[in-house]
UniProtKB/TrEMBL annotation:
GO terms for molecular function: glycosyltransferase activity. CDD domains: GT4_MtfB-like. Pfam families: Glycos_transf_1 (PF00534). This is Glycosyltransferase family 1 protein. The keyword Membrane does not apply. Residues 218-367 form the Glycosyl transferase family domain. InterPro entries: Glyco_trans_1. Keywords: Transferase. Gene3D superfamilies: Glycogen Phosphorylase B (3.40.50.2000). It comes from Bradyrhizobium amphicarpaeae. SUPFAM superfamilies: UDP-Glycosyltransferase/glycogen phosphorylase. Coiled coil: none annotated.
Length: 402
């Protein structure tokens, strides 16, 4: 039986943060799987910068951008009736034709890509990180200008047509089955893993100090790495710091991440609260600097509304940094975080104060390492299940080879 030739699509830009780092983790595992199993992967990305990054890991990738005709296909697909025309004429998008020319058997989307709508002949695997447009539709980034409807089309077809659906939490499997009638046996749960850049970074005092000095930081700050979206809930964090200041407690905060349209409001709130002297906004940082920034923090504080899982807590646990996290995501955090109500600034302020209690940091550090080890076991089990699915696909596709 000839090797399975799997296309691995990395469509998220580096600036997306966790949306780039987790697919990178998936790719590195798939590279090892292919080498051990005698199969092949072909990596594609629309970003030249991603190709350069992958070279650092010894991965050769191909640039595959999406042209005007692909976007026409997507637009018509969203319109619905185009399906009948495409079926009748057996039309394939330029995107799919390019993959077929490369001898691809299966396409693996490492994010919830709209490009799966362009596939009519090739089977695909899809990754679904969350269902937050259903969980929190009040946020404009998942609701306005047709975004909610677009996601419904993507999620509905992806979760029912995909040969395999990769998720990061068991509760997401239940959500997809309930909302879109996904077949449960097609789902594979692979928990998030810390970014390779963080988990493999070394604790070198001189190097860490150099990174902090570059941003004019001193250790002991609260750290929140997140893009500036409304759902990231920076406002509650700022209100909590203002509340602490009224109690006579002054905490320093470091924010990093790219601006997604929410930065102006955050800047205005910082000025209104009088917190300018306590907050450093350092923008998007290089992946190689993240380990030092986590290690320099007194705690990761993450008030995001979107879950059920997130990558930063895992990265904080990997370097022994305490985590302050919403109680809504207790399933991920377990006892390895101080929990708070993400709708209540006072609750978050109390959580920050409790971090200073005797023995708390040591307890959280130990619990974080144990939690990370548990997720590593679950990730290994998920990878084994995924490998079985890939072998099943290999056998079935051999029966229907072109």
């Amino acid at each position: 039986m000839r090797p399975l030739r799997l296309a691995v699509m990395l469509e998220q830009a580096l600036e997306v943060g966790g949306g780039f780092q987790q697919p990178l983790n998936d790719l590195l595992w798939l590279r090892d799987w292919a080498a051990k199993s005698g199969n092949e992967i072909v990596v594609y990305s629309p970003y030249p910068k991603t190709l350069d990054i992958l070279k650092e890991f010894g991965v050769a990738a191909r640039l595959l951008k999406f042209g005007p005709l692909d976007h026409v296909f997507l637009f018509l697909k969203y319109c619905g009736p185009f399906d009948l025309v495409q079926i009748a004429l057996k039309l394939k998008s330029p995107f799919e034709r390019a993959l077929i020319r490369d001898g691809i058997d299966v396409v693996h989307f490492t994010s919830t890509s709209k490009r799966h709508l362009l596939l009519y002949e090739l089977p695909f695997i899809i990754t679904i990180f969350d269902g937050c447009h259903r969980d929190a539709p009040e946020f404009p980034e998942v609701r306005t200008f047709g975004e909610f409807e677009r996601r419904e089309i993507l999620f509905g077809l992806a979760s029912t047509k995909a040969a395999v659906v990769i998720v990061n939490a068991p509760e997401l499997v239940d959500d997809l089955c309930r909302r879109y009638a996904m077949e449960k046996e097609r789902a594979v749960c692979i928990p998030f893993s810390p970014s390779t850049y963080v988990s493999q970074s070394t604790s070198d005092a001189a190097d860490d100090e150099a990174v902090l000095s570059r941003y004019r930081l001193k250790p002991g700050y609260l750290f929140y790495p997140a893009q500036f979206w409304p759902h990231k809930n920076h406002m509650t964090l700022l209100a909590a710091l203002a509340s602490l200041r009224e109690r006579g407690v002054t905490e320093r905060l470091v924010l990093c991440g790219s601006d997604r349209g929410g930065r102006d409001k955050i800047d205005a709130a910082i000025r209104a609260y009088g917190l300018s002297d306590q907050i450093s906004i350092i923008g998007f940082v290089e992946s190689a600097e993240l380990g030092a920034l986590y290690r320099g923090a007194a705690a990761l504080v993450m008030p995001s509304y979107f879950g059920p899982t997130n990558l930063p807590p895992l990265e904080a646990w990997a370097v022994g940094t305490p985590v302050i996290y919403p109680e809504a995501f207790k399933t991920q955090a377990g006892d390895a975080a101080i929990l708070f109500d993400y709708d209540d600034p006072r609750s978050l302020a109390d959580a920050i104060v409790s971090l200073r209690a005797d023995g708390t940091r040591e307890r959280l550090r130990t619990a974080g390492h144990l939690r990370l080890a548990q997720f590593a076991e679950e990730t290994n089990a998920g990878h084994q299940q995924f490998a079985r699915h890939l072998e099943r696909l290999k056998h079935r596709l051999a029966l229907t080879a072109r």
